Amino acid sequence: MNAASMNALLAEHPFFNGISSRYLDLIAQAASEARYEPRELIFHEGDEASEFHVIRRGKVAIEIFTPDRGPVAIETINTGEILGWSWLIDPYRWLFDAQAIEPTEVIAINAIQIRESMAADAVLSNELLRRFTPIIVARLQATRMQLLDLYHVDN
Amino acid sequence: MSITELAKEPMVLTDPMLPTWFRVQSVRRETHDTFTLELAGPNDGGEFSFAPGQFNMLYAFGVGEVPISISGNPVTTDPLVHTIRAVGAVTRAMQKLKRGDLIGVRGPFGSAWPVMDAVGRDVVIVTGGIGLAPLRPAFYHILAHRNDYNRVVLLYGARTRDDILYRDELKQWRGELDLEVEVTVDSSVGRWRGNVGVVTKLIPRAGFDPENTTALICGPEVMMRFTIQDLLNRGVEKKNVYVSMERNMKCAVGFCGHCQFGSKFICRDGPVFRFSDIEDIFGIREL
Fold first, then answer.
1. Are A142 and B201 an interchain contact pair (Cβ–Cβ within 8 Å)?
2. How many domains does chain A have?
3. Which of A43, B49, B205, B230 has the most neighbouring CB atoms within 10 Å?
């Protein structure tokens, strides 16, 4: 896919809605397409968080591996959603595993390049943080609700 | 057709305080703590008319009485169906019932889901846990009158894969081309390949037109609170959001006051409320 096509693809996504063409060009230059088969690991807990992903199609499970129970899925990320924000926060390591559970097509964005650009451009930094913060807050809120164990009744 | 017409004269009740004996036709295990009773009325069954969302008071002989939503098909009302979670002495006694045993029934009581008001609109049903049981009659009604509605969305959350209610029916509904049915679980270990996360996570990507949507919600109150917020965030109007409330109902006819909810009685004015009618009291913790 050439840069113009990638640019157009990103521009259609709500996450990039309203971002300036200059920044969209910059992100498109750091973007590439990737495909994952079911059960294929997209990233692994503890590894360097060097990319984030726009899910074009498919479903990805965010998992924690436990010695006694195996992988425990915390949440699933679906078509249209953004996968990965550990690349924003020092020490830039994935906090969970991400595993495709359906054939999954993504746009992978090189986070190292983006981080460097953000360090040099406060406006870009603000733009991206402003877009990622609601995602982080929504996932925190969802996790809090999961912790409530709403459907459990003590007998 | 109005809701009143939907809930025709009940078959047996002349005195709403007097239970009528129904006979257990079958007991079906749904999950580890939830089961479904199919009940036949006196004289080998016959019509038991109700409107989707209404409840009965079920009486386990010598143990006690509990309010249980009717979860069967209002279009084909025989047998009378109740899905029950065994969480106390009465419901645990009901879990032990066998085919042929007797159970007391008073009802139907309470308000109904606005299935007639939703005609011509998108219908979004958001439910969690056993909250699917009170909504199933509304879903049956919509399926039986599918051409009367636009998009129909059912979003269902369960605790784990093993806690999913009406699994076979959900699979069947998911296979229909003109229904959007999404299931999610709060916690997953092992071979579940479906959605993981709270049910509200399904709302942003569900396909409906917020301005032309009627939303029906049933589940734990916290879940309903966040669901309402997410629906409002998407643009659904408060007046088009309906919730089913639960309180400690005893008499079921508005006499005893056990289920008082502000100026309302859940048993008589509810359990189904238009959210805009109870918004002022919905968030009051003391109620």
1. yes
2. 1
3. A43
How wide is the angle at C-alpha A48 spanned by C-alphas A36 and A124, nearest 5°?
A: 90
Q: Is residue A63 part of a domain?
A: yes
Task: Note down the domain range covering A37.
Answer: 3-148
Which chain B residues are closer than 8 Å to A74 by Cβ? 196-197
Q: Which of these, B51, B81, B5, lies nearest to B272 by C-alpha position?
A: B51
**Is the complex ipTM higher than 0.85?**
yes
DSSP tally for chain B: helices H, then strands E: 7, 16
Interface probe with A: pick from B193, B203, B222, most Cβ of A within 10 Å: B193
Last residue of a domain, one of B77, B109, B141: B109
- From the list B163, B193, B205, the residue facing A101 with the nearest CB is B193
What span, in angstroms and rounded, lies between the C-alpha atoms of B258 and B5? 29
Nearest to A16 by CA among A117, A8, A1, A84: A8
Instruction: Please judge whether A146 and B219 are an interchain contact, meaning their C-beta atoms are less than 8 angstroms apart.
Output: no
Last residue of a domain, one of B83, B109, B135: B109
Q: B259 and B266 in contact (C-beta within 8 Å)? A: yes
**pLDDT grade for B254, boundaries at 50, 70 and 90:** confident
Strand partners, B71: none
pLDDT, tens digit (0-9, with 9 covering 90-100), for B126-153: 999 999 999 999 999 999 999 999 999 9
8 Å CB contact of B189 and A101: no
Name the percent of chain A in helix, strand, coil, to the closest 5. 40, 30, 30
Structure tokens at B146: 């599918």
Rounded CA gap, B86 and B199, in Å?
Answer: 23
Helix (H, G, I), strand (E, B) or coil at A55: strand
Considering only CB atoms, which residues of chain A are within 8 Å of chain B?
A: 38, 59, 61-62, 69-76, 78-81, 101-102, 141-142, 145-146, 148-153, 155
Q: Which candidate from A62, A102, A148 shows the least CB-CB separation from B222?
A: A148
C-beta atoms of B129 and A150 within 8 A: yes
A150 contacts in B (CB within 8 Å)? 128-129, 159, 186, 198, 219-220, 222-223
CATH number, position B34: 2.40.30.10
The reply to whether residue A153 touches residue B226, judged by beta carbons under 8 angstroms, is no
